[in-house]
Amino acid sequence: MNGIGLTPDMLKAASDSVYDTLDAIDSALVGRGTDRLADIVELANLSSMLGNMLRAGIAQSSAGMYLSNGPHKHPDLLHRDNPDQNIEIKVALEDNQPKGHLAKPGIHLTCHYVLCDHSGSFSPGKEQRGNVVRVWMLRIGRLVESDFNISNTEGDSGKTAVVNAQGMAKLEPVFFDPVCCPLPMTSRAKKSKAIFEAMGLPYSPKE
Fold first, then answer.
1. What SS3 class is residue 37?
2. How far is the first Cα of the chain from the last one, in angstroms, to the nearest whole number?
3. pLDDT at 129 exceeding the cut of 90
4. What is the rounded distance in angstroms from the CA atom of residue 76 to the CA atom of residue 111?
5. How far apart are CA 197 and CA 190, in angstroms?
6. Residue 78 forms beta bridges with which residues?
7. Distance, CA of 63 to CA of 195 (rounded, Å)
8. What pLDDT band is residue 51 in, cutting at 50, 70 and 90?
9. What local confidence, expressed as pLDDT, does residue 5 receive?
10. Does residue 155 come out as left (phi exceeding 0), alpha (psi in the -120 to 50 range) or beta?
């Protein structure tokens, strides 16, 4: 997305910093004879932690262009010079649609991840989930309130704002790892093909 200034190298460095942090935590846990972080915390909490780590990684890799706004503060990243370029980060497992408690118009960076096995290999399906986090896609774009579906069911813990199909279409892929892509790779998989094409990669369906 033009005008934001986050380069692919910055995003890769931020993702690598997330892996470094997770590897350090997992090494400490395994060294004490306990499970890895992904085995201990609930998926919702894991996603939240990844968002915090990615926020810190981008702040560090952007050479001062973005500043971390701290946990539980909106937006996640503050632009050094232009508040209109502030960024909210949303994290989702596999191909789930990103969500938050409220619809927050502005620039959004979405991070989609999968859980690989201990060797880093990914196999699709809930039953095949491992405990090693790998980011498979980052998307960025500017969203407005109508790009969210808002639920406010009585008795619920609070509002939930899910990025809808209209909003997802506005989010441009800026990082993509085809090896860890959880989407079906078939001739009818329009979403998969669109992502490959957006990243300038050849699409080779399995059927």
1. helix
2. 33
3. yes
4. 13
5. 10
6. 67
7. 29
8. very high
9. 82
10. left
